[in-house]
Request: fold
Amino acid sequence: QVRLVESGGGLVQPGGSLRLSCAASGIIFSRYLMGWYRQIPGKQRELVAVISSSGSTHYLDSVKGRFTISRDNAKNTVYLQMNSLQPEDTAVYYCKASWEPTNYWGQGTQVTVSS
Reply:
C-alpha cells in the first residue's frame, strides 16, 4: 500500500519559516519525481516545487528564492523549506509522487500565514 504522509504545517507569522516533510512508503522512492503543490479553497491546485530523481528542481516563480525543495532517498522523505512566508502562501500543501503513468497524493497539511 502506498502512503504519502505530510507534516510540518501550522500557523506562522509573516516573515516566518516552516519546513514541510512528506514521508513515503510502498514505493521505490528514489525513482519518483516528488512535488509539492498547494490549494486555496475555490482555486485550482498549483505546483509549488518539484525535484527529480536526479535532484533537479523547479519552482513556482512566486516562491523562488524563498522556498527550497530537497529529498533524502535514504529516509524516503521529501522536504519543503519555506522562508519569508507571506499571507498569500496560506493554503493546504500536498505532496505528490510521480512515476509516469502513476501518481500518488498525500492528504495535505495546512499552512496559515497570519499575524
About this structure: The first strand starts at residue 3 and ends at 7. The radius of gyration is 13 Å. The mean pLDDT is 97.
